[in-house]
Write a structure and sequence with these properties.
Layout: E1 14-15, H1 16-23, H2 27-36, E2 43-45, E3 49-52, H3 54-69, H4 74-85, H5 107-116, H6 127-142
Antiparallel strand pairs: 1-3, 2-3
Helix pairs in contact: 3-5
Length: 144
């Protein structure tokens, strides 16, 4: 499919209709995905109205990418999301800069930003540069 999705506005909460437009899916699909993906839990207010936060919009875009663009099944996408949230602690894994991968970094956030090229605040995020800077900060803090 490869459809270009609109950028996510800088808002705290989104209605189901807004999320449907931002993610290129119908509202009934979002309600179905809430049943299938336990990580997806929008806040519900009066009359069971759903309000999604920014991180949930990112997750929905990730789910959409896994299902529609990469061809995963629902259970395969569910497993892939679990891997992103809880990556295996493999000490031999390394990132592109050659530094060891730290499983405690918010890998899902970095993957979402890299894969979706989020431009919510008007700039793109270079996750490799962010990762390198985080390692530098951690090294500086460990010297103290």
């Amino acid at each position: 499919m490869g459809t270009t999705l609109p950028s996510i506005p800088a808002k705290r909460y989104f209605t189901i209709g807004e999320v449907a437009e931002l993610c290129g899916v119908k509202p009934h699909v979002l309600r179905y995905w809430e049943q299938e993906f336990t990580q997806l839990r929008p806040m519900k207010r009066r009359g069971n109205r759903r309000y999604y936060q920014h991180h949930e919009v990112l997750m929905i875009r990730r789910i959409r990418d896994l299902l529609y663009d990469q061809g995963f099944t629902i259970s395969g996408a569910r497993n892939r999301l679990q891997e992103l949230v809880h990556p295996a602690r493999d000490e031999s894994a390394a990132d592109a800069s050659g530094e060891p991968f730290d499983a405690e970094l918010p890998s899902m956030m970095l993957d979402s930003a890299r894969d979706l090229s989020i431009a919510a605040t008007g700039f793109t995020l270079d996750s490799n540069a962010v990762r390198k800077e985080l390692f530098e900060i951690r090294a500086l803090l460990s010297l103290n």
